[in-house]
Amino acid sequence: MKIAVVRGAFLNQFEMQNFVPMTKKHQITAFSSLKPINDQIGFSVIKLPSPMDLLNIIPAHQGRRITRGVLNRFFIDAHYLLGLEKKLQGFDIVHCAETYYHFAQQCLNAKKKKFVKKVVSTVWENTAFNNEGVWGRKKFKKRAIEEIDHFIAISQGAYKGLISEGCQKEKITIIPVGVDLEKFKVQSEKLKIKDKAKQITILFVGRLEEEKGVKEFLRVFKQITDSKQQKTIKLRIVGKGSLKSWIKRWIVNNQQENNITIEQHSYQEMPQIYQEADIFVLPSKKTKTWQEQFGMVLIEAMASSLPIITTRSGAIPEVVGDCGILVDEASVSQLSQALERLIKDKFLRTKLGKMGRARAEKYFDSQKIAKKIEKVYENLSCCFN
Length: 385
Known about the structure:
Layout: E1 2-8, H1 13-16, E2 27-32, E3 45-47, H2 61-75, H3 84-87, E4 93-97, H4 102-112, E5 118-123, H5 137-147, E6 150-153, H6 156-164, E7 172-174, H7 189-193, E8 199-205, H8 214-226, E9 232-238, H9 244-253, E10 260-263, H10 270-275, E11 279-282, H11 296-303, E12 308-311, H12 316-320, E13 324-327, H13 332-344, H14 346-363, H15 366-381
Parallel strand pairs: 1-2, 1-4, 2-3, 4-5, 5-6, 6-7, 8-9, 8-11, 9-10, 11-12, 12-13
Helix pairs in contact: 4-5, 8-13, 11-14
């Protein structure tokens, strides 16, 4: 089959690794904006101009947020790709995302013009009736639910959200996102041999925003380091976002320069970063318009055999299962207790790490996920006119 994967500015390696295995059998092309998150995805990419490209010339995160809001109100949704409909001509299946992105409407326009045969959409949004505050989006969503041929919900929350908004159950398949288990794997023998008896490295990977719980965890980390532990505790923060400057100031004001680092790495470098850690933490908390939709970093950590501390937020319990310590959102005391427990108990760290790897192999192997997505395509191909 000839398949188009449309992600606009959100095109990235972490999701596309679930499509790469299908390139051995099918012709797959991705469509992105001029400046996507990442364009080195393992198969060909066609870049088209988008209003989202304007955000790349605005340096401050707050400025970008304001500009995105203005663009959304002008375009209904700024994820529009200039000339996409014509570029899709001749594809059997076009696979977009969500129900409110503008490029999803463009994919449906291409189908209406008989440029493509079927439209599939992956849905991450797990809050029903969300994203309807902007004029026109409710209409976008209604059309998408009626006209998209099949939805892939990455979680039970996404599935329930689609049902609540009127989608037919038979049009939805729940398929999570997976990772390449050959890249994200258990620590190498060299790292295992390394003497880490007196040092524990804690890893946070994610957007540096309020909803990721970074502020709460910094308070926890300071409590732990101030308690004169025998072990040396280090925290590696990997990511970027509007809180980066605030975090840097906090580190200096609390004299944590020797204990905390803020880093940015390419996705190719991330498997090594996970292997160098001892504990993974993701203390997400919901807002009025968002709750953790999946948590890709959680399955990367599980695949890397890391013990996890996280929160009961959104899809997290569904993803982690019993392979981590789950605490209440924004609970500094519970986060602190969980961290102290894992720092002291090497056996528990090892046990949770092995359980996490086994869970990743069972549910989140990108090779297996690719086969499930391909099955959706094959079922739709039976209905080609």
